[in-house]
Amino acid sequence: MAAPPAESPLILISNDDGIDAPGIRALTAALDGLGELMVVAPAQEQSAVGHAITVRMPVRAHERTMEVPSGTVPAYAVTGTPADCIKLAITQLTPRRPALIVSGINRGPNTAVNVIYSGTVSAATEGAISGIDAMAVSLCKWKAEAAADYEAAGRYARRMAEEILAQGLPPGVLLNVNVPDQPYRDIRGIAITRQARSRWEESFEARTDPLQRPYYWMAGTFVNLDEGDNTDIEAVEGGYVSATPLQLDLTAHDHLQALRKWTW
């Protein structure tokens, strides 16, 4: 007697740009046919919220669908953060435990220090916390006035999702993927990279609203502090897709012994 067919892997898709963002629609279409897909994403844009979760107000999930080439995919628009979406999805909304979580496609790079602020990366991080393989995908394009082309990012997202499903990631590790803003044919391949050191130098412009009340508008300049090799920034600037393994353990292990010698 033949063995029953293996159950199709459930792939959970989320983002921080909101469920109506073109990036998540492109990602869902790119993953069509790879497994059983389900989308659980913020109802509104949640960029740069980091790993915030909602604890003092209710979180609501509104049922929807998302179109893909083969038909439609079940979807939920959640009144919360990307981390809320993953928590709610895996405990209440998905029919079974996901085999993979893919977050994106974010508009704008999530290289270097941006991984700390990114809701896109945090959705994948929440998956890793729950012991589920997870990947965050970003298209390195800033300018909002020009239409973004997600075709190359979608193709690489599918290629890398296939590999994660086949190989699996180590416990507590997620993959942070940044794709150059270039046509697919011009991208030079995939580079396994480390997170570059960087910071944002912020400034706040003082303004006044129509009622003459003061408020402040934040701006900032990105500063790359890392001229070394094999960084995520270097790879993207060189035309490669950057794939950086990130871990949940933030301990600076190299400095444990030195700190133990301090006079506490």
Features:
single chain; 264 residues; alpha/beta; Stationary-phase Survival Protein Sure Homolog, Chain: A; two-stranded antiparallel sheet; 7 helices; 24% helix; 31% strand
Structure description:
39% of the residues are buried. The chain contains seven helices and eleven strands. It is 24% helix and 31% strand. Helix 1 packs across helix 5 (151-167) and helix 2 packs parallel to helix 4. The strands form two sheets. The chain has a nine-stranded mixed beta sheet with strand order 3-4-2-1-5-6-7-11-8, sandwiched between helices. It has a two-stranded antiparallel ribbon with strand order 9-10. With 264 residues, the protein is α/β, with parallel strands linked by helices. It has one domain (10-197, 228-250): Stationary-phase Survival Protein Sure Homolog, Chain: A (3-Layer(aba) Sandwich), CATH 3.40.1210.10. It has helices spanning 22-30, 82-93, 114-117, 119-129, 151-167, 232-237, 256-260; strands spanning 10-14, 36-42, 61-68, 71-78, 100-107, 134-140, 173-180, 190-192, 198-208, 214-224, 241-247.
